[in-house]
Amino acid sequence: MTIADPGTPTFLRAHNDRTALRLLLDHGPLSRSRLGELSGMSKPTASQMILRLERAGLIEKVGESAGGRGPNAVLYGVRRDVVTGVAISVLGDAISAVVVDALGTEHPVARIGIAGEERSPERDVDRAVAAACAAADIARETVSMIAVGVQAAVDAKRDQLSFTDTLPGWPATGAHALITGSTGLGVVLGNDVNLAAMAERAYGAAQDDPSFVYFWIGEGLGLGIDVDGVVQRGAGGGAGEIGYLPVSPAGLELVPDARDLTDLLGAKAIVALLGGAPGQELGDVLASVPLTAAHIDALADRIIVALTPVLALLDPAAIILGGPTGLAGGETLAARVQERIEAIDSARSSVRPASAHTDVRVSGTGTEPVLRGAGRLLVDHIRARLEDGILPA
């Protein structure tokens, strides 16, 4: 790539074109005159920027804007099909995947059942990318990067996975390298709950909090720990693997044979609490059993056992309840957990300042938070790749 000297006409043209592209990404379709207003450029200069971006294949005519006298103004928008990515969530028996583009368009989510299938990182990801592209009717050749959320602790530096109970066929070491080698794409491999926490920060119930903990309650348990907008992963990617913590005496009073917090709040424990049959799927039970006040109180009692050490160690501004069980309990469950936190604060006022306050809320990112978090990562990459199409740098 040719590097132009700052101040030269070539450099200024590229700078202006990048400015125009960013404005189109941020504001959506614009006319020449509106682009000129937003960029501070004259209408002729804005027209030249539009022409160059159109010739580069980065933008296209998307409609017309009526208003005022004279002919309708042509609107230009960024093309969605030039550079794309795929967000992937790998679960124990299923994979979800969705195409992501520079504009954050809502594409259909592809879901693939993999129970009993031969598994490997390459096979899982290949099927996911193919299914997502087919669902969105997007050419696979446009995909430049994928972001994969897995139920495991991810040590990106060493390319190692830990706590891989739900990833049969995935090696403890080298999964990232295998996926990169087989796809030839840029790959981000991350813990699913951390990605869900990123979605909560960007789109959900924790956008304005200085710090928060995202508590995933589903088949297993996990914490996504956000401090000042940065997810804390730990030295080896294992931060937040709370399901493996031993149960406290308070927890043993609730479930005497529980060994760890997963035995208290994981899928099997919640199915039993709600009266489901052994082996019944958590999602099926949550969908078929109305949660009574007694159920909600029992859930809140278990949740506060898990959160007590979190409150002591992290003192977060907010706790977000997510995962199937957290969403099923909804605002009522959040309120019950809030009451229990306030009771702890009252009992320990000499230890925890009276001004300290942790809000409990339900996740605001829907049923696919992992995909939304992975997609958030991809949008920034895709936009950077589009800018790379403007020469010279």
Automatic annotation (TrEMBL):
Tell me which residues make up the HTH marR-type domain: 20-69
CDD domains associated with the record: HTH_ARSR
Keyword Transferase present in the record's keywords: the answer is: yes
A Pfam family found in this protein is ROK
The organism's place on the tree of life at top rank: Bacteria
Please give the Gene Ontology molecular function terms for this protein.
DNA-binding transcription factor activity; kinase activity
Keywords on record: Kinase, Transferase
Q: InterPro entries, per this entry?
A: ArsR-like_HTH, ATPase_NBD, HTH_MarR-typ, ROK, WH-like_DNA-bd_sf, WH_DNA-bd_sf
Which family does the record assign? Answer: Belongs to the ROK (NagC/XylR) family.
Descriptive protein name = Putative NBD/HSP70 family sugar kinase
Task: Tell me the organism.
Answer: Microbacterium telephonicum
